[in-house]
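# step 3/5: fold
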Amino acid sequence: MLALAAAVAGFLPLNAQKKPPASPHPPEINQVELADYLRYVNLWPKEVSVQFEKATPSKLLPGFFDLPVKVSAGHTAITQMYLLAPDGKHLIRAQAGDRLGKIVFPVDGYPFAAEQARLKLDGRPSVGPADAPVTVAVFSDFQCGFCREEAKILRSNLISAYPGKVRLVFLDFPLTQIHDWSQQAAVAGRCVAAQGVEKFWAYHDWVFEEQPAISAMNFNGKFLEWSGKNGLDALQLGRCQQDPSVNAAVTASFQDALDLGLTSTPTLFINGRQIGGKLEWQALKQVIDMELDYVAAAKKKQEECCSVSLPGIFKQ
């Protein structure tokens, strides 16, 4: 191993081998803004107190700084360790034991922008305005029991509670190794969506409602019966279900989920923030409320940053 390391080092350019020593002094941080940022990232309510201890050169990750953060609420207090980049623009959580799905955060931008950009939402069934301030994308499996419960929560509450403010997008993640008709159902869903997005959501609700009674043996029969009652073109559906490109599109969506590091369903992305597992409505509502507040605050800050005030006859 030492010989290999030496060999690799020998091929590095001189400027890479002789870097200037890292500064022993941590970058300055705005503690008020960083505390608000960490509350948002970690979904801490406003009553949670956030205090920063002295940042010191990190032994865990040379070149970075250990930044202990004391978090307290009432009589309960814990200290979380963060690693602060020397540029002051990135944080790494030294320990990650929750469902956020990431540990590195850009402090000078939207923390989940990279994840949101990686989601392939174009052309997928959605409900709610395309320009809604909050997008909830759900990777789901029609044969998954937890997905069934989450689907009911989303469909019963989301759009009615946030009219015009939230968009819901459905993404296929059929776990075919354990669910023998999930791929069939995903393909059928895409074929229904081709005849209208409203039809898809009717199909979505029907599949999850009937899930306990569906099997790999009876899926096609039940689906044909449902589609006939709901005015879908049977010939078009049949051709679509036999189209290899549709099956390939479902498989591609499955691969997209794997590339994002997903291993289970349902998994939600709320403006790029990953939350795995079933989420009860009150918990989901708190996340969305915080997201709406964050988006509104960011928009206001941007407008204040880029506006000018001109003299006039009326007082400002």
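# step 4/5: annotate
The first strand starts at residue 49 and ends at 52.
# step 5/5: archive (pending)
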